[in-house]
Amino acid sequence: MIRWGVLGLGRIAHKFVQDLQTVPDVELLAVASTSQERADEFAAQYGAKHAYGSYEDLLTCEGLDVVYIATTHNHHFENTLLCLNAGIAVLCEKPFAMNAGQVRQMVETARSKQVFLMEALWSRFMPSVQKARELAENQAIGRVKGLRADFGFIAPVVPEKRMYNKALGGGSLLDIGIYPLFLSYVFLGVPQTIKATAVFGSTGVDEQCGMVLTYAENQLAVLNSTVVSKTETDAVLYGETGNLYLPGRFHEGDSVVHQPADGEPQTFTFSRMTWGYDYEAEHVSDCLRRKKTESPLWSLDDSLNLIGLLDAVRAEAGIVYEEDK
Length: 325
Known about the structure:
This protein is α/β, with parallel strands linked by helices. 33% of the residues lie in helices and 25% in strands. The protein folds into 2 domains: 2-120 and 277-294, 3-Layer(aba) Sandwich (Rossmann fold), CATH 3.40.50; 127-272, Dihydrodipicolinate Reductase, domain 2, CATH 3.30.360.10. The strands form 2 sheets. An 8-stranded mixed β-sheet has the order 8-9-10-7-11-12-13-14, covered by helices on one side. It has a 6-stranded parallel β-sheet with strand order 3-2-1-4-5-6, with helices on both faces.
């Protein structure tokens, strides 16, 4: 039995815990918020045994195996170190932290203390993405030549809320642009060059971000994120003998289409009754049972590489946060 705690009880925490309840041999042991009332309500709703009105108090819970951190981006660094320094394993929401300097310190702490740490990039564990990787690696579309991916939706302009609040790590790139960038990294690796530009809104956050990446083997990735327009939010991996298509809302999708240059397309579908967070929760639980301190599917080096790409895009596009100073 792997006993979970949840730190930060916003919308995504509800979805994660709903899916956690479908994972075998796990238990929601404790939850923590900055509000005791919110913690009590959350615990009552999902059957957690303990509810804490501060994050520090969560660490006093006996028998806690791992904590899922679901706070805003700007708090990931301090919340993760809080748990790691107490010797408690961590699954922390994406982006792992605000910049590479923070992530390096998180990784160094986890490795020095031999405590499990993983970035909650749930898309890496989706069966559709796993299948697309398998097809690409098996040369189903020949040599990969390029990738196009976007993520866009219309976010209400509420300055105090996370998306438009720079102090909370707001903006399109860190919140949703990370998904197209993640996909380019998974399929093409680390690029040789990065070109990026951003359009900024009235609160100073990037409302749109466009990225063009080139690679050593003459491959190209064209990526986009926006919070002012609803886009297809799909992805295409282009190859010499066909394409792989991840349909709309690819980051949480349940299918992948193999489109050969000659022949009929084949669709692989992976139906589910959950949001999709159960895949990463089950993976983390399995890693803990196997006494691993890193995931073999999304390692700490992968997270370091991804935050490095995010930093490079921000530098190119002029996206700056207080934490960078």
